[in-house]
Amino acid sequence: METNNKDLHAELVVNKMMEKDLFSQWLGIRVLEVKEGYSRIAMEIRAEMINGFGVIHGGVCFSLADSAFAFACNNRNNLSMALDTSINFLKPTYPGDILTAEAKELHNGRTTGLYLVTIFNQHQQQVALFKGTCFRTGRNLI
Description:
- By secondary structure, this protein is an alpha+beta fold.
- The chain contains three helices and six strands.
- Helix content is about 30%, strand content about 40%.
- The two termini are about 20 Å apart.
- About 30% of the residues are buried.
């Protein structure tokens, strides 16, 4: 039962974050699942998100991963800020594609956390891999 309470608390934190996260709202991000140290979110690629080569702009894919990272590293109600992030783009994506980002905690330290975010398209093909390190401030979000 304790795990369920922790996961419920994690959901409450992420819901509160989404209320104020106008950028994630603008992207059309939907929160699919939240557990302590974990998040899974999705969005559909719109035509205005493509670059001059006709594929999704890398910043859009990065932003999806960054949101998943933020939801996973903050959902213990400890305000956490990105220290370092990186992304590898593996496959192009196009308007109409549905991208899902899954953030998994690799390390949960007192002052830092390490997360791996995998992004898949609707065909379950991995399109990007993101790694993020956060700093934990010790301040509550809610």
